[in-house]
Amino acid sequence: MRHKYLLLPVLLPLCAFSQSKITPDTMIFSDNPVNKNTIVRSFSNEFERLNQDNHFEERADYPTQVIRLSGSLENQQLDCDQVNKQIDETIVQNITPDKFTYNMYIICTYDPETNLATQFTIHSYFDPLDDNAIDFLKSYLSEYNGTDFLGTKLKIEPAKG
C-alpha cells in the first residue's frame, strides 16, 4: 500500500486553514515617515461631501483638476511660513468648499540651521460642484495657470484616465 495516499487526507485540512483571511477592516495603512524638518499640511472635504444628504445642482461634465508641483527653494530666502502663506493665497483660498470637492497635500521642507525652506511639494485634485464653480475655475485657470509660482511654473491640468 502506498503511504502517500494516507498523508493526503491528513495534510489537506492543514493547508485549508493556513490561508490568511484579509478583510478591509484588518488592513493597516501607515503614513510614509517624513523628515523631521518637514511641515506637512492637508486639506480635504471629500468625507464631508459624502456624508451630506443634499444634492448638488447638475453640472456640465468637467474633468477633475490636478496639481502635482515640486520646487526647490534653495535660493529663495523664504521660511516655510512664507511659503505656506503664498500657497494659501494662490491655491488654498481659491479652492473653497462651497465650489469644489478637493483634497490637498502640501509639504515644506526646511534647513534646521537657518530655518529657511529648501523645497515644497503640492499634490492636489479638485472637482467643481456646479456650473458656477466651473465658470470660476475657468477664470482662475486663465489667471494663475502657467504663472511663476515660488520659482517654478504653476501647472494645473485635467486628470487623465
Description of the structure:
The structure is a single chain. This protein is α+β, with helices and mostly antiparallel strands and 161 residues long. It has one domain. The chain is 29% helix and 28% strand. It contains four helices and seven strands. The strands form two sheets. A five-stranded antiparallel β-sheet has the order 1-3-4-2-7. Strands 5-6 form a two-stranded antiparallel sheet. A hairpin with a 6-residue loop joins strand 3 and strand 4. The N and C termini lie far apart (61 Å). 17% of the residues are buried. About 10% of the residues have low confidence.
Key descriptive features of the protein:
single chain; alpha+beta; 5-stranded antiparallel β-sheet; two-stranded antiparallel sheet
- The best one-word shape is globular
Strand content: 25-35%
- The helix/strand order is HEHEHEEHEEE
Termini separation (Å)? 61 Å
Count of extended strands: 7
Percent range for helical residues? 25-40%
Please tell me the overall pLDDT.
81
Strand order of the largest sheet: 1-3-4-2-7
Task: Give the biggest sheet.
Answer: 5 strands, antiparallel
The low-confidence runs, each spanning 5 or more residues with pLDDT under 50, are 14-20, 22-30
How many domains?
1
From the alpha carbons, calculate the radius of gyration and give it in angstroms.
Answer: 25 Å
Q: How many alpha or pi helices?
A: 4
Structural class: alpha+beta
